[in-house]
């Protein structure tokens, strides 16, 4: 009898709390964003650094969870291994984001992200040889986000990317600063 009373009390408490949570948790918000990205990649022969621009389209399903689709593109860069080696990169994919709002006003949030993307690296050696490396990269990262108002936000994110089945590319670190508009 005592166990049944404890279980019923627990279920009643969960039911009361669920009503309050549902009223507060669902706040679907689509958004678009654009920003600057610095990418340090580790290839077998050298370690290029890319500066790229990117944009993303996403949705916040609550103040704690969201998803986004991203695209990044860098320009061609001379990599210092003799004047004849140039490279560039492009990536696109999907990220899942988790947020932890801080403070009473909840303008600051700590963010964590995990995702997957396809990365394409183009290498030109002396104008004679062209290499294209492409494959999947698994992204893990975190950062901070600040809301100016209900529509405009900015964020700084850093991500570690581990590549799968690429011959010459081992890993990368990405640092991104961006601005986003929530509808």
Summarize the structure.
By secondary structure, the protein is mainly beta.
Your description of this structure?
By secondary structure, this protein is mostly beta strands. The chain contains one helix and nine strands; from the N terminus they run H-E-E-E-E-E-E-E-E-E. An eight-stranded antiparallel β-barrel has the order 1-2-3-5-6-7-8-9. The longest helix is centred in the N-terminal third of the chain and has 24 residues. The protein is elongated. The N and C termini lie far apart (53 Å).
How are the SSEs placed, and which strands pair?
Elements (H helix, E strand, L loop, with lengths): L1 H24 E18 L5 E14 L2 E10 L2 E2 L6 E18 L5 E18 L3 E19 L4 E13 L4 E14 L1
Antiparallel strand pairs: 1-2, 1-9, 2-3, 3-5, 4-5, 5-6, 6-7, 7-8, 8-9
The share of residues in helices is 10-25%
- Radius of gyration based on Cα positions: 22 Å
Distance between the termini: 53 Å
Biggest β-sheet strands, sense, barrel: 8 strands, antiparallel, barrel
Which features characterize this protein?
single chain, 183 residues, mainly beta, eight-stranded antiparallel beta barrel, 13% helix
């Amino acid at each position: 009898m005592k166990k049944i009373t404890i279980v019923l009390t627990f279920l009643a408490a969960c039911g009361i709390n669920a009503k309050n949570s549902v009223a507060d948790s669902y706040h679907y918000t689509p958004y678009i964003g654009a920003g600057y990205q610095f990418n340090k990649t580790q290839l077998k022969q050298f370690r290029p650094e890319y500066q790229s621009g990117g944009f993303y389209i996403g949705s916040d399903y609550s103040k704690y969870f969201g998803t986004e689709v991203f695209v990044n593109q860098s320009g061609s860069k001379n990599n210092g291994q003799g004047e004849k080696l140039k490279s560039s990169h492009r990536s696109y994919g999907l990220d899942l984001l988790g947020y932890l709002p801080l403070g009473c006003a909840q303008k600051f949030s700590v963010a964590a992200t995990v995702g997957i993307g396809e990365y394409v690296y183009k290498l030109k050696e002396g104008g004679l040889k062209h290499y294209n490396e492409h494959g999947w990269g698994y992204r893990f990262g975190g950062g901070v986000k600040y809301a100016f108002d209900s529509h405009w936000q900015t964020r700084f994110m850093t991500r570690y990317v581990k590549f799968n089945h690429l011959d010459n590319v081992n890993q990368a670190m990405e640092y991104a600063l961006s601005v986003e508009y929530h509808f």
